[in-house]
């Protein structure tokens, strides 16, 4: 390609960019066959290495489209050129994009009218207007309807790169904010997962190895062992760490709502669908989706999940349009899925699609050498959170921690230490504030008498009360300080 400017000047892309490089026949404003397919090559390559930024070029001039695309060759971006407004809307419906360079003059189409349509379909999309209007009044008007900034033709290659870098930084900040909002009440996954236990060390070593790949991971283990924490760590250690991390709790929603949560829906798809919804799959494009308690996913949704794992294709509820997404799936379950397959409760083909890399997390009772470090970590964290001056444990408390089997695993230990920190009136936690022996019942807070209900009875009453005042299952789980999947199992146990 010849220089886009004279020597000594910044390279520019003129109003009619020229290139000696071979190119396809101009599309005359109509998408070419590869474009109609949604640029599947880009999707396939993204599975191997997620791009830093997904860029859409919307311009009716084939020379401009080609020249802008060439600016980003060799960069960590994926680029899709679009010749018309209709083509751009189809592309945004099928794929996730971060940035769109939009020409305000698109032949018979209007770039100004296209901007709000693009933002309606992809609210996160950053739009940079490209205009040849010397008055720039139309560009200012475009910013008012949602464009991030504007560039004037003739375009500078450096201006394009700088604009893309600004958007990449902005999208990274937005994803980081989403991650921080999700983690605001969580401990650091890396510290949380430190271990002296040989089996747990092997689990962590395996997790670090598979993090670099894009293969589906199935985490198994008892409830409370830290499957969700390990899933977040795999995401943090992976090349997708700058992408979004989404969580879907499979047992906490009814079938129709779970389907909408995963795949999204269009307005009017069902009662209450008053607007379009982007599902978690689309929202985590380029990132990681964690399917918590995947063994409880309804049978009618299993074929759709299988298809997405195989082809990365799906449809929103109420919309026949096929969409694609580049999402790495990490699933977790405390069920024996092999037995569920034998019982006809879980699809065998889905089981093997999920079980590409199986990782089993050992229970806390099998890694007692980690108890002291974990207890100390939780004590320090909750002392700071609740403004307490607790600095350690009595010898009796440490013996209690070691002797107790912790059937609820790390989650039970964490909750027990938080309770002990809150109730402790000294600088060290005593044994009476911790569960012991063969029971998880804690020391009474007041005078006991024979008329008091059993612990299970009290638990059932309290869960029923919280469910009666909470406006959703998720809010009830938040009040109870348990995962939605745990609340679902408690309701099933007590027949609530």
Tell me roughly what share of residues is in helical segments: 40-55%
Mean pLDDT metric: 82
What is the helix tally?
A: 21
List unreliable stretches of 5+ residues.
Answer: 1-47, 438-452
Gross morphology: elongated
Give the neighbour order of strands across the main sheet. 3-2-4-7-8
User: What is the name of the CATH class of the largest domain?
Assistant: Alpha Beta
- CATH architecture group name of the largest domain: 3-Layer(aba) Sandwich
By secondary-structure content and strand pairing, the structural class works out as: alpha/beta
What is the count of β-strands? 20
Structurally, the number of domains stands at: 4
CATH superfamily annotation of the largest domain: P-loop containing nucleotide triphosphate hydrolases
Measured between the Cα atoms of the first and last residue, the distance is 70 Å
Please compute the radius of gyration using only Cα atoms.
27 Å
Main sheet overview: 5 strands, parallel
Q: How much of the residues is beta strand, in percent?
A: 5-15%
Quote the CATH topology of the largest domain.
Rossmann fold
Seen as an oligomer or otherwise, the chain set is single chain
């Amino acid at each position: 390609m010849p220089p886009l400017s004279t020597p000594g000047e910044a390279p520019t892309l003129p109003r009619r960019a020229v290139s000696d490089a071979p190119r396809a026949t101009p599309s005359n404003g109509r998408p070419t066959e590869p474009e109609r397919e949604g640029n599947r090559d880009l999707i396939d390559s993204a599975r191997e290495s997620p791009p830093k930024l997904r860029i859409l070029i919307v311009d009716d001039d084939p020379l401009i489209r080609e020249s802008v695309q060439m600016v980003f060759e060799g960069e960590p971006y994926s680029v899709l050129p679009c010749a018309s407004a209709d083509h751009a809307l189809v592309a945004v419906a099928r794929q996730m994009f971060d940035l769109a360079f939009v020409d305000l003059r698109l032949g018979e189409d209007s770039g100004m009218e296209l901007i709000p349509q693009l933002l309606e379909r992809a609210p996160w999309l950053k739009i940079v207007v490209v205009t040849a209007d010397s008055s720039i009044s139309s560009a200012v008007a475009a910013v008012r309807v949602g464009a991030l900034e504007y560039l004037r033709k003739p375009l500078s290659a450096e201006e394009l790169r700088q604009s893309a870098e600004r958007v990449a930084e902005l999208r990274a900040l937005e994803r980081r904010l989403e991650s921080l909002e999700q983690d605001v009440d969580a401990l650091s996954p890396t510290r949380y997962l430190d271990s002296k236990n040989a089996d747990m060390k092997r689990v962590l070593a395996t997790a670090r190895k598979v993090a670099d790949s894009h293969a589906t991971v199935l985490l198994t283990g008892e409830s409370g062992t830290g499957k969700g924490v390990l899933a977040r760590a795999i995401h943090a250690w992976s090349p997708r760490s700058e992408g979004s991390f989404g969580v879907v709790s499979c047992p906490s929603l009814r079938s129709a709502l779970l389907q909408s949560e995963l795949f999204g829906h269009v307005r009017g798809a069902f009662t209450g669908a008053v607007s379009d919804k982007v599902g978690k799959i689309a929202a985590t494009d380029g990132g990681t989706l964690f399917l918590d308690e995947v063994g409880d996913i309804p049978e009618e949704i299993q074929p759709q999940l299988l298809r997405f794992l195989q082809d990365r294709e799906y449809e929103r509820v109420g919309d026949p349009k096929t969409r694609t997404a580049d999402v790495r799936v990490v699933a977790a379950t405390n069920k024996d899925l092999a037995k569920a397959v034998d019982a006809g409760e879980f699809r065998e083909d889905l089981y093997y699609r999920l079980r590409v890399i199986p990782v089993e997390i050992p229970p806390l009772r099998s890694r007692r050498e980690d108890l002291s470090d974990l207890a100390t970590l939780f004590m320090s964290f909750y002392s700071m959170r609740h403004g307490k001056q607790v600095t350690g444990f009595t010898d009796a408390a440490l013996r209690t921690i070691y002797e107790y089997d912790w059937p609820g695993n790390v989650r039970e230990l964490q909750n027990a230490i938080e309770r002990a920190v809150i109730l402790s009136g000294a600088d060290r936690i005593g044994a009476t504030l911790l569960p012991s022996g063969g029971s998880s019942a804690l020391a009474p807070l007041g005078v006991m008498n024979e008329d008091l209900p059993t612990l299970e009875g009290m638990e059932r009453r309290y869960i029923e009360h919280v469910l009666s005042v909470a406006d959703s299952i998720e809010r009830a789980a938040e009040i109870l300080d348990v995962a939605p999947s745990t609340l679902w199992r408690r309701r099933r146990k007590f027949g609530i």
